[in-house]
Design a protein that fits this description.
The protein is of the alpha/beta class. It contains twelve helices and eight strands. It folds into two domains: 163 residues, Rossmann fold (3-Layer(aba) Sandwich); 123 residues, N-(1-d-carboxylethyl)-l-norvaline Dehydrogenase, domain 2.
Length: 313
């Protein structure tokens, strides 16, 4: 039986880790956090202020954060997930549980589990099945691993919405990755279709046709802004997740044609924004039309050009 979690460490204090850490601290738990940006002089003070505001104690290292924590939440980038698990295995101990909420392939989760379990600690994978910001601690998660069912009870006592679906590592992340092929693939398709339609002056007719074909989805309403905004705000992270989805497909001998293309389109979007000096508008309502026009307009005054589209040979 897994004991109640009273002392919690969060490794990775970005958007998801910051929200979970803040909500857990507000629930009365002691929460410690470490983020690699605490080692960056230009970002350290901002990260310390974020931790103070959340009621979380920032630590100078992952080892310091993890010491004596019953629960360790890994909430880093997809590219760093396996590295963090291997590094944590050097100081995790029996009786501690690492909850890996990172959006990575089943193979990556299994490798992380092996590293953690070799040191005697427990490992549970979590697939986060919706955006964290609106639901915060109550965001739905699917759990997998030998102790997933036991961990679910203790995690629900913290206020998390978790469901154990398998005692095998990889099943929950496979659900996440396969779902992401559709969700993030749809985002990439929307950008490609609507930006082209905008340049042709055909967007109204395209959206009307999509609404007739898929009634109720909101193609003539809020859906296009919602789809494009996710990429504009978090495109690099979403592209990284789609590359993990591509690895997932490769593991079952399927060519990741759509996943790889979606990752490329998402990456193109944020690179084009960066090249043009366009930042995501956090202070006002996002408009996909404004972004499409900005990316189709003239280059920046400093002479930088937008990333070129690849033309099929």
């Amino acid at each position: 039986m897994i004991a109640p979690f009273r002392r919690i460490a969060v490794i990775g204090f970005g958007e998801a880790g910051g929200i979970l850490g803040e909500d857990l601290a507000r629930s009365g738990r002691e929460v410690l956090a470490y983020d690699i940006l605490l080692d960056a002089p230009a970002r350290r003070e901002a990260m310390l202020a974020k931790a103070r505001s959340a009621g979380v104690r920032a630590c100078g290292s992952a080892r310091e954060a993890v010491a004596r924590a019953e629960l360790v939440i890994s909430a880093v980038t997809a590219s760093a997930a396996a590295e963090v698990a291997v590094a944590a295995a050097a100081f995790l101990q029996r009786g501690q549980l690492l909850l890996d909420i990172n959006s990575v392939s089943p193979a990556t989760k299994r490798a992380s589990a092996r590293a953690v379990e070799q040191c005697g600690a427990d490992y549970v994978e979590a697939a986060v099945m919706a955006a964290v910001p609106p639901l915060r601690l109550a965001v739905p998660m699917l759990l997998g691993g030998a102790r997933a069912a036991e961990a679910a009870e203790a995690l629900r006592a913290l206020g998390l919405d978790v469901t154990a679906i398998s005692d095998r590592i990889g099943v929950a992340s496979a659900v996440k990755m396969c779902r992401s092929i559709v969700i993030k693939g749809l985002e990439a398709l929307a950008i490609e279709s609507l930006f082209a339609a905008r340049r042709f002056g055909a967007e109204r007719e395209v959206l009307a046709s999509l609404e007739r074909t898929f009634p109720g989805m909101g193609w003539e309403g809020a859906l296009p802004d919602a789809l494009v905004s996710r990429v504009a705000e978090h495109g690099r992270r979403r592209a990284a997740e789609m590359r993990e989805a591509a690895l997932t497909l490769g593991d079952v001998r399927l060519d990741p044609l759509m996943a790889a293309a979606a990752a490329e389109r998402q990456e193109w979007t944020v690179e084009a924004m960066q090249t043009r000096g366009i930042e995501y508008p956090h202070d006002r309502r996002f408009s996909w039309r404004e972004l499409a026009d900005a990316l189709a307009g003239p280059e920046r005054p400093d002479g930088h050009e937008r990333p070129a589209e690849r033309v099929p040979e």
